[in-house]
């Protein structure tokens, strides 16, 4: 089997679990005495909003459990890991349905945003709540008897709250219809990225995998002539948050530098007034005259003004600044990963090497 075929088989197996949990959620909904019209609506919402996309977050839960256990998973282990993966994807779906309404977006994953589908409209607000509610139904049914059930509830609630904090800061910093670059800074960008993306896209899947693999809160590792105590969840966080920040900065850079053929979309961060790493880096490097050019041209729905901004980014050497940043941050991450002391039943360097390997030097 080629690597492409193996990847497709992995995805198909993971998607097979979605069909089971979707039917379970719809059956539970139906058992409450809900009318046929509402049952069809709920099923359509789940099918439309959850299984599309790359599924990287969800499948990384399964991949991480396999790495932590160091072997192929039993059917029951796979099913439990995949349920947690789909809980992460349900959280993503909840965020995206709501986010598309806040941003007045037109399409998502190659189809109209859910709120723009005929007859849906503002009902999408309640649909987003139900997508989030489905997470806790699944956790209750499949994990309530587990010793780590409260920890799962805690990490989903905490991560959801953190993501909503980041979303608020992003919305008030960079509204699409009001450009004010005085609100922008690399520090503000970092705060938005860590809270809006890194916690739920990077830490949450790994924390779920660690919990279902029953990685303890602390354990001892050999150190010099004695032992030292490791807090594996804090250690994972200290690697995954910078990794998530690097991923988003890379995304921001590709929006500016990548071609539509390469990244699969037309970059719109400049015209959409996004608080991206690229413009924040430009602000930090710009002379007063260059800053004036940015103030007059950034965030405008005008192709000519977009070209002016892109030319200024080139003039400021954004490509070389990014290349230097990438090598520095990847070097720091590799050092942190290499310092992990591996013991039976603890963290594995491969968990983080796997994430980094998928991201480093990506071009789309």
TrEMBL record:
Molecular function as annotated in GO: (2E,6E)-farnesyl diphosphate synthase activity; dimethylallyltranstransferase activity; metal ion binding
The protein's annotated pathway: Isoprenoid biosynthesis; geranyl diphosphate biosynthesis; geranyl diphosphate from dimethylallyl diphosphate and isopentenyl diphosphate: step 1/1; Isoprenoid biosynthesis; farnesyl diphosphate biosynthesis; farnesyl diphosphate from geranyl diphosphate and isopentenyl diphosphate: step 1/1
UniProt record similarity statement: Belongs to the FPP/GGPP synthase family.
Ligase as UniProt keyword: no
UniProt keyword Ribosomal protein present: no
Enzyme Commission number, as recorded: 2.5.1.1, 2.5.1.10
GO cellular component: cytoplasm
A GO BP annotation: farnesyl diphosphate biosynthetic process
Enzyme class: transferase
Organism field: Galerina marginata (strain CBS 339.88)
Protein name: (2E,6E)-farnesyl diphosphate synthase
């Amino acid at each position: 089997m080629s690597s492409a075929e193996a990847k497709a088989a992995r995805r198909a197996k993971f998607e097979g679990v979605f069909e089971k949990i979707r039917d379970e959620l719809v059956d539970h909904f139906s058992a409450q005495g809900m009318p046929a019209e509402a049952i069809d609506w709920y099923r359509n919402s789940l099918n439309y909003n959850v299984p599309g996309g790359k599924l990287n977050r969800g499948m990384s839960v399964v991949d991480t459990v396999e790495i932590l256990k160091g072997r192929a998973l039993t059917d029951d282990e796979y099913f439990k890991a995949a349920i947690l993966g789909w809980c992460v994807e349900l959280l993503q779906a909840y965020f995206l349905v709501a986010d598309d309404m806040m941003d007045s977006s037109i399409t998502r994953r190659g189809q109209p945003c859910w709120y723009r589908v005929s007859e849906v409209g503002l009902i999408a607000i309640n649909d987003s709540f139900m997508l989030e509610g489905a997470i806790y139904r699944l956790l209750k049914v499949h994990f309530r008897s587990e010793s780590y059930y409260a920890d799962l509830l805690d990490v989903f609630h905490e991560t959801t709250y953190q993501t909503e904090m980041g979303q608020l800061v992003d919305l008030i910093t960079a509204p699409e219809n009001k450009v004010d670059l005085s609100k922008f800074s690399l520090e503000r960008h970092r705060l938005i990225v860590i809270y809006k993306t890194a916690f739920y896209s990077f830490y949450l899947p790994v924390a779920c995998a660690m919990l279902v693999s029953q990685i303890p809160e602390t354990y001892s590792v050999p150190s010099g002539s004695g032992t030292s105590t490791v807090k594996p969840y804090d250690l994972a966080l200290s690697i995954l948050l910078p990794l998530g920040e690097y991923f988003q900065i890379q995304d921001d850079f590709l929006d500016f530098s990548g071609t539509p053929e390469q990244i699969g979309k037309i970059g719109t961060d400049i015209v959409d007034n996004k608080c991206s790493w690229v413009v924040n880096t430009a602000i930090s490097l710009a002379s007063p005259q260059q800053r004036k050019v940015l103030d007059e041209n950034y965030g405008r729905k005008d192709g000519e003004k977009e070209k002016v901004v892109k030319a200024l980014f080139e003039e400021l050497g954004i490509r070389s600044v990014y290349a230097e940043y990438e090598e520095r941050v990847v070097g720091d991450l590799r050092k942190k990963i290499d310092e992990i002391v591996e013991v039976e039943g603890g963290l594995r360097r491969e968990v983080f090497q796997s994430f980094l390997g998928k991201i480093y030097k990506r071009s789309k």
